[in-house]
Design goal:
The complex is a heterodimer.
Chain A: H1 2-11, E1 23-25, E2 28-30, H2 32-47, H3 53-59, H4 67-75, E3 86-88, H5 94-97, H6 100-119, H7 129-138, H8 143-170, H9 179-201, H10 206-220, H11 243-248, H12 255-286
Antiparallel strand pairs in A: 1-2
Helix pairs in contact in A: 6-8, 7-8, 8-9, 9-10, 9-12
Chain B: H1 3-10, H2 16-47, H3 50-55, E1 70-72, H4 73-98, H5 123-128, H6 134-155, H7 171-195, H8 222-226, H9 231-257, H10 261-269, H11 272-298
Helix pairs in contact in B: 2-7, 6-11, 9-11
Classes of the chains: A mainly alpha, B mainly alpha.
The complex binds protoporphyrin IX containing FE.
The site of protoporphyrin IX containing FE (HEM) has 27 residues of chain A, from helix 6, helix 8, helix 9 and helix 12.
Chain lengths: 307, 311
C-alpha cells in the first residue's frame, strides 16, 4: 500500500487522493482543510499573543490581575527582582521617601548612557579634548543635547543624593538594623562627588582647569603626605613625590592629569559606584525593605539596652 | 544696585543648581518636619491615652480595619517609579534643550581665572580656606565630614524615631544635622556661589564685581594682639587657647547632652567611646563658626602658631 502510494505520487505530483480533497504535493499529503486550520491558528496567535510559545518563553508567567501573577511578574523579572513582592502601603507615597534614592539611581543610569555616547567622540589628549567638545557642540547630530544632558544630570544627581541623605536622616532610617547601609550610602555620596569632580577637567577649558587646580592645590597641604602640609617636608615630600603628584601624574595640571581624570571618571569610579550601589540595594532588601512609614513608638516603650 | 551683575551670576547655567537649592532645601526641610510635627501630635495623643495607644494603627496616614498593610509592588510601586522616570526625563530634556553647558576658553595655565572657583558642591570647603589653612579646610575637614557621617548610626543610641518622621523624639539629632547640613554645608555653598567675587572678596548681592577692588584688611594672630613675641611661648599660648576652647565647647555640648531627662536616658545607653566620639565631632563642628566669627569680627588670622602648623 505505502509503496504503491509513493510510486503514484512520483508519477503524478498533483494526483487527488481520497474524498476529503487532500492531495499529494512533492511527496507530502496536502489537506486544504488542515492548512486553513493552521492559518487560523496563526491568526489567532496575533489576536492573543499571550497564548503563544514565544511569549511564554520570554515572560514565563501569566500577566493577569491575580495576586499570584502580579507577584510572580515582579519576582521573575531580572530587572524588577530587586523589588520585594509587596511593600508597606504608605511607603509608595511620595511623601515618605521623596523618591530621591530611586531618582539618584535613574540619573546615574542616564549618566552612564550619555557618558558612553560621549566617549565615542572624546579623546583624552591635550591636542584633541577641547576640539572634541567643540565638535560635539557644533557638528555631531544631537551632540550638544548629549553634552548638556550629561552635565545637567550630573548636577541634578549631586543634589538628589544629598536630599536622599537628608530624608534618610529625618526618618531615622539609619537606625538599627540599617546602620551599615547608611555607611555604604556615605561612600556613594563621596563617589558621586568625585565622579562629578573628575568630569569637570575633561573639556580641558579654563573652568575645569582652574577648578581642578584649586581643588588639587589643597592636596599639597595634606599633613605628612603633601609638600606644603604640616610635617610634609619632615617626611621628605617635594612637589615631585607627594599626593598631589600622584593625583595629577605630574606637578601641574597637564596631559597626564587629563588622562588620569579620564580613567577615574569613565572606568574606575563608575565601577566602584556601581558595585557599592549593588551592595546598597541588596542591603535595603536584606534589612527588611524600606524602613517606613513605621508605627510610631512611644517613649515608654523603649526596651532596656542589652549588650 | 547692579541688577545686571546679579542677573549674570544667577543666570549662569552652572549656577542653576544653587539657585534651585535655595528653594529646594527649605522646601524639603519644611516637608519633612511637617510630617514630623504631625507624628508628634499623634504621639502626644497616644501618650495621654494608653487604651488608644494599644488600639491605634500608629500612623498619621489613614488606615481602616480590613485594609492590607502591604500592597503588591506591581502596580502600586512600579507605576510611581515609572511616573518618576517620565517626569525626571522630561525635566532633563527641557533643561538640556534650553540651557547650554558652559565651555570657556581652552585651558591656559598662564591666564588665571578670577575668581577661580571649585565646582559648586565644593564651594563650602573653598569658603573655609578663608578661615583655615588648606590642610584643615581641604584635607582634615572633608575627612572628618566623611567619618562623621559614617559614624552617625553608631553613636546615635536613641531608639525612637526609627522609620518615621519626628521632631520631638530626636530634637538633638535633628538640630545637629540641620546645623551641619544646612547652615555649614548648604549656606556656605550659596555664599561661595553668589557672594564671593574676584579675589574671593565679599560682594553683597547687587554689588558690582569690581576686579580692581582692594580691601586692606590687617589680620593679626591672636598672640600678637596679646603681645607675646617669642616662639616657645607663642606655641604654648596657642595650645592653651585651643585647649580652653575645647574645654568650654565640650562643657557646653555636655550641658546640651544632659539637658532633659530623656537626653540623660539616652546618654545612659551610650558607651564611653560613643560619648567621646560624639563630643569630639561636636567640638570640631562648633570650632567652625567660632573661627569664622573670630575672623569676621576681630580680624584674627591664627589662634595657634607653631613652627610646624598654624590653626
Ligand atoms: C548614588 C547614590 C545613592 C543611590 C542611587 C541610593 C539609592 C537608594 C534607594 C533606591 C533606596 C530605596 C529607598 C529610597 O529611594 O529612598 C535607598 C535607601 C537607603 N539609602 Fe540610599 N542611595 C544613595 C546614596 C545614599 C546616601 C548618601 C545615604 C546616606 C548617607 C544612603 C542611605 C540609605 C539608607 C540608610 C537607605 C534605607 C532607607 C530606608 O530603609 O528607609 N543612600 N537608597
Amino acid at each position: 500500500m505505502e509503496a504503491s502510494k509513493k510510486a503514484a505520487a512520483k508519477s503524478a505530483p498533483l494526483a487527488t487522493n481520497g474524498s476529503n480533497g487532500s492531495r499529494q504535493l512533492l511527496g507530502v499529503t496536502v489537506d486544504p482543510q488542515e492548512i486553513k486550520q493552521k492559518a487560523l491558528m496563526d491568526l489567532n496567535a496575533i489576536k492573543q499573543p499571550t497564548k503563544t510559545e514565544v511569549y511564554k518563553s520570554i515572560f514565563r508567567v501569566k500577566h493577569d490581575q491575580t495576586a499570584r501573577s502580579r507577584t510572580l511578574g515582579v519576582l521573575s523579572n531580572v530587572f524588577l527582582h530587586l523589588h520585594p513582592a509587596r511593600v508597606n502601603r504608605d511607603a509608595v507615597r511620595f511623601s515618605f521617601t521623596w523618591g530621591m534614592g530611586g531618582i539618584s539611581f535613574y540619573l546615574f543610569w542616564v549618566l552612564t548612557w550619555t557618558g558612553v555616547l560621549l566617549m565615542f567622540y572624546y579623546h583624552p589628549t591635550k591636542v584633541q579634548a577641547f576640539r572634541d567638545i567643540l565638535y560635539l557642540e557644533h557638528d555631531v547630530p544631537f551632540g550638544k543635547l548629549l553634552r548638556n544632558m550629561h552635565r545637567w544630570a550630573a548636577h541634578a544627581m549631586v543634589l538628589t543624593v544629598q536630599l536622599h541623605m537628608f530624608r534618610v536622616f529625618l526618618t531615622g532610617s539609619y537606625k538599627k538594623p540599617r546602620q551599615f547601609n547608611w555607611s555604604v550610602g556615605v561612600i556613594l555620596l563621596v563617589l558621586t562627588l568625585l565622579l562629578s569632580f573628575t568630569g569637570y577637567l575633561l573639556p580641558d577649558d579654563q573652568l575645569g582647569f582652574w577648578a581642578v587646580t584649586v581643588g588639587t592645590n589643597m592636596a599639597r597641604a595634606t599633613p605628612m603626605l603633601g609638600h606644603e602640609g604640616p610635617f610634609g617636608p619632615q617626611f621628605g615630600m617635594t612637589p615631585f613625590n607627594d599626593v598631589r603628584f600622584a593625583l595629577l601624574g605630574g606637578s601641574i595640571v597637564d596631559a597626564n592629569a587629563l588622562l588620569r581624570a579620564y580613567i577615574w571618571h569613565c572606568i574606575a569610579i563608575p565601577g566602584f559606584a556601581a558595585t557599592f550601589m549593588i551592595v546598597h540595594f541588596w542591603r535595603v532588601r536584606k534589612d527588611g525593605g524600606i524602613s517606613g512609614p513605621n508605627r510610631i513608638m512611644l517613649e515608654s516603650e523603649i526596651k532596656p539596652l542589652r549588650r | 544696585m547692579d541688577w545686571h551683575q546679579l542677573w549674570t551670576i544667577i543666570s549662569l547655567p552652572d549656577n542653576i543648581p544653587i539657585v534651585g537649592m535655595i528653594f529646594i532645601i527649605p522646601f524639603f526641610t519644611w516637608f519633612g518636619l511637617r510630617q514630623g510635627f504631625a507624628n508628634d501630635r499623634l504621639l502626644e495623643k497616644l501618650e495621654g491615652d494608653p487604651k488608644l495607644a494599644r488600639a491605634h494603627h500608629r500612623k498619621t496616614q489613614p488606615f481602616q480595619k480590613g485594609w492590607a498593610r502591604e500592597l503588591p509592588v506591581w502596580p502600586y510601586l512600579l507605576r510611581m517609579e515609572f511616573l518618576a522616570v517620565v517626569i525626571v526625563t522630561f525635566i532633563l530634556m527641557v533643561w538640556s534643550i534650553t540651557l547650554d553647558a558652559p565651555l570657556e576658553e581652552p585651558a591656559n595655565p598662564s591666564l588665571t581665572m578670577n575668581p577661580s572657583k571649585a565646582p559648586w558642591y565644593f564651594l563650602g570647603l573653598q569658603e573655609m580656606l578663608v578661615y583655615f589653612d588648606p590642610w584643615i579646610a581641604g584635607v582634615v575637614m572633608p575627612t572628618l565630614i566623611i567619618i562623621g557621617l559614617i559614624v552617625i548610626p553608631y553613636i546615635d543610641e536613641n531608639p525612637l524615631g526609627n522609620g518615621y518622621y519626628t521632631y520631638k523624639q530626636r530634637k538633638f539629632a535633628i538640630w545637629t544635622f540641620i546645623f551641619g547640613f544646612i547652615i555649614l554645608w548648604c549656606s556656605m555653598i550659596v555664599i561661595g556661589t553668589l557672594i564671593r567675587g574676584p579675589g574671593w572678596m565679599w560682594f553683597w548681592p547687587g554689588m558690582t564685581w569690581d576686579h580692581n577692588r582692594l580691601i586692606f584688611e590687617i589680620n593679626r594672630d591672636l598672640h600678637e594682639i596679646i603681645g607675646i613675641t617669642s616662639q616657645p611661648w607663642i606655641g604654648i599660648f596657642g595650645g592653651l587657647v585651643v585647649g580652653g576652647f575645647v574645654t568650654v565647647a565640650g562643657y557646653a555640648c555636655h550641658r546640651l547632652i544632659v539637658a532633659t531627662e530623656f537626653t540623660r536616658r539616652i546618654l545612659g545607653r551610650m558607651s564611653l567611646l560613643q560619648y567621646a566620639i560624639l563630643q569630639a565631632l561636636l567640638i570640631i563642628m562648633l570650632a567652625l563658626p567660632v573661627k569664622i566669627l573670630a575672623r569676621l569680627l576681630f580680624r584674627i588670622k591664627y589662634v595657634w602658631v607653631t613652627p610646624w602648623f598654624n590653626v
